[in-house]
Amino acid sequence: MVVIKTENKNKLVREITEKSKKHNEYMAKIRKNHPERIRKYYEKSKECNKKRKEKYPELAKKYDWEKALRLNYGMTPNDYNNLFSEQNGVCAICGKTNRDGRKLFIDHDHKTGSVRGLLCNKCNVSLGLMDDDIDRLLSAINYLQERMGV
Predict the structure, then answer these.
(1) Strand partners, 107
(2) Please, are residues 134 and 122 in contact by the beta-carbon 8 Å criterion?
C-alpha cells in the first residue's frame, strides 16, 4: 500500500487535474480538426467490441447488464442481489419468478428514477401499460371484482 503525505497528495491531485485538462483540450482539438480520424477510431472500436461479444457472449452479456444497471439505475450487481435477496428471489407484486428464467426486472419511478423493487415480466409490463397510475389500477381492480362477482 502506498501512503502519500497530505501536502504531496494535494500536489498530486493538482497535477492530475492539470494533466486531465490538457488532455481534454488536446482531444477536443483532435476531434475538431480530424473528425475522419476519430470516426475511423470509433468504427474500429465498434468492430473490436462486436468481435469480442461474438467470442465471449456470456461475458459480454454480463458486462452489458452491469453497465445498464449502473447507467439506468445507479446500481451495482451487489445492490441488485441484495434487493433480490430481500424479496426472496420473487416478484414484489405476485410473488413469482419469471417463467423463462430471466432475471427479475427493476421497477423504478419514471419521474424520480428511484428504484421501487424487482418485478416479473408480467407485473412489470402490466404496470407500464397502466402508466403506473394508481387510479387506473384501482379502476381495473373494481372492474374485475364487479365482472367476476367478487
Answers:
(1) 117
(2) no
